[in-house]
Amino acid sequence: MADYGWPDAEHRTLIGKRITRVDSPVKVSGQAKYTYDVKRPGMLFGKILRCPYAYAKVVSIDASAAEKMPGVMAIHIIQGPNSTIHWAGDEVVAVAAVDEPTAEDAVRAIKVKYQKLSHLVSDAEPPKGAAQAQGPLSMDDIDDMLDNQVPARQMVEQIQQYGITSKPDEGTLKGLQEDGATDEVIKAIRAATVHPEAGSRPKSNYQKAAAQTLGDGEKAFAQAEVISEGLYGVPVITHCCLESHGSTSEWTDNDHLLVHMSTQNVSGIAGQMAEPLKIPATNIRVHQDHIGGGFGSKFSPDRWGIATAEVSKKAGGKPVRIMLERDSELKVAGARPSAYARVRVGAKRDGTIVAWQSESWGTGGPGGGGMPPIPYVFSIPNQRKEHTAIRNNIGPARAWRAPNHPQAAVITMCALDDLAAKLNMDPLDFFLKNIELGKPRQAIYTEELGIASDLMGWKQKWHPRGQNKSGNLARGVGLSLHTWGGRGHASDCDLTIHPDGSVDIKMGSQDLGTGTRTCILMVAADTLGIPMDTISLQIGDTMYPPSGGSGGSTTIGGVSSSTRRAAVDAREGLFAKVAPALNAQPAELESINGTVRVKGDSSRSLSWKEACSKLGAMPLTVRGKNPDKSKPPDLTNSGVGGVQMAEVEVDTDTGIVKVKKMVAVQDCGLVIDVKTAESQCHGALIMGISYSLFEEKVMDPTTGRMLNPDMQYYRLAGLNDIPELVVHMMTGKGYDERGVIGLGEPPVISPGAAISNAVANAIGVRVPFLPLTPDRVLGAFQKAGA
Amino acid sequence: MRDDDPNQNEKVDERSGVSRRDFLKISSISVAVPLVTGPKVVFVAGEQVPVHGPGKVPMEFTINGKKHKADLEPRVTLLDALRDEFDLTGAKRVCDRAECGACTVLMDNKAVYACSVLAIEAQGRQIATVESLMQGDKLHPVQQAFVDNDASQCGFCTPGFVVACKAFLDKHPNPTPEDIRRGLSGNLCRCGTYHGIQLAIAQLAQKGA
What are the DSSP E strand ranges found in A144-242? Predict the structure, then answer.
């Protein structure tokens, strides 16, 4: 069988090297066309009327004035009378008009009456006794979950775990299906245990999950010699993609739709639009060339994406573009769940951690949300954990780069750092002392901690807390560890070698700016022994073979594996045709530097072009797949370890925190392109500085609205906030042979914890919650009486 | 106008329309103006202010050295005119209120946020967008430095950053790191490409681009 395995270092021409991103030139020159830039002939401009209230019922909608306005082409009611609105900014009516100003005027001319209901937008610690055990779900609960975009997997889990309050009839099930319930959800409802007695119970915003225990926490705390207690947390932040969510939809005939959408999930969009639009998925073509950021928030067509297609249909099928305005983008199109916890953690005098106890809470909006994976990285032998999910009206949560891990890192690594301080230990020594609890990655962490320590100059910089101050400036260092899965997703790759020597690759994947295009071309070119620029790569269309959504750091493993298998098979197919001409067996051939030749005999060779001419009249097309057990070995893997260290300077008069240096040491198996991999890490550190110091979705308890839905008060880090950044990728022996593993998520996990720990080291007190704004820093001082 | 623009407080040129802020100030008055094209003059805030619209009015622009004409409502921004009328989509609409810099273009060789310049007041000015920087197939040195130093990821902020960098380097050919940090704080990136951008600028400053 052909050898699909990754070539070793001596036999790689491109893989593992520093290669420049192939789509940089079109991006720096403004030629790259994003969904926002697509202008179709005769295109109309759509706008959406949004509910100003956080919790309300729609009473009536009067769009008659808007309908009469010149230039208004179609109006589509998204949520009509009697609909319940669960967050401010939710979609009510869509309008399409000849230009954008007219569409805006039309939205203003529509009169909607609402019945306001009493909302909750706080995610403060649940009042004592308010939390209610999650019980059986009513059909209304399930409908609400659909409305609130709770992931199907989570719904199935809850239905299986808690049961339902009444057995639904077929009509109700059909209704749920129309509202977006997947087959798995319907199946779970049919199979669920029915608890009719639970139906009449009043519902609380606070839902307590069952306590989780491991070992004997009570005994372990009784035996612990040092116990540290603390409060830690991370608020809701937004995705703030620079290209807002949205699409352009047009009906090419009565039942065929062409969609340009800003999405991380090109291959998965048609299937999600088919049901609500009542056309087969095969009739929906989705296309995207470039995407201006997703970070986990762009996997679904969203209610506004469906509405764009609906309003286009009402406008006679004309193309309609609806891209969200910045305020809507921040209000409704992406939020990371908050997580807070009161933590007790105990150790022996020598620093051995023995026990963990946490009461955590947080919100993912109307859907509630789960407990982050705490304690993180360290499997502490004795644990007791309780979590309360707050269901409120801040808008739905979405996956945000490394879902739940940054929160878990802050809660765990800050609690452990406080324990180290109480033990009078250098946290580096303390983490190393307990590194066996980091199984199975203890060896990786140990090596990475050593490298990170050298790169940071940790041993010179670390002082006991609060003991490195000159005047009003205090310096400190902090560290954190993280992990992630990152196994490659399902991916199909079609690779064609033409008789004239040209090569093309087609794949329904997408490049989020992570370097996906570059890496696909590197793998194919390295395998075929030809230059990257001789291969034409087409991605971002449902006309190409499906490839998974780009989430969870699954893309690089998926596309590199399917491309490798396709390229190896194509090469073998070519060798079979070329071998007779070289008077050799196919197995004796190799393809290198643009020639196909007999191994070890350069006199018997053909140029790539000559070799391809032996294909005859027809091109050779093969499909590579991931996963593919019939073509071993497994080319991708799961489970990475990373270490980050931060150095900060805090002005103790003003409370202003400046990050002075950050070090990231990261493993991700075999790195395809070191250059773009390092950029991922640099970018993650910068994004991490941003959420550590500035970012928070601030809700107004009175109006229930977001107070900072703009880029002035929802602050992103700027160039002026960026310190010295040092990135070290773990490569070579012990890493390369693990196969390709994703990198998008891991390096963004640790910055919050590392920076918070550095601030605690600098000023001697813990600032409990991110972002570490001046008011929070000064507040922590005040509380400590410092 | 950007914060570092010394002319930001200059009086509005009456021939070139009104600024967006002035427009907002007088919008309640303009409602009472009859629906005809061509400027009317009203007395507001102690001065004569020409009022255009609210219907579409003919406008003429010089963009990347070429003349462009369009009928636009006076409330249309330069950014939307570039993108929707002339298909120059390099400048991006992100915040649409002068916070992020993704729409940066040059107006008479000065970097401006195109989202916060009304199209009507860009008439008679030399507008240059990112699309004008390449010479044939050859990237501008700033663009090449961005490519070399991997200074773009998703790339949505990149055109604005490239234009801002060019304008900055034209003014500060030998910038200190402090100059760079201050001079390019008007553009924001979400993917975190600032490290590559800093390297790109350092490379250009060394070469004396």
Answer: 206-208, 212-214, 226-234, 237-238
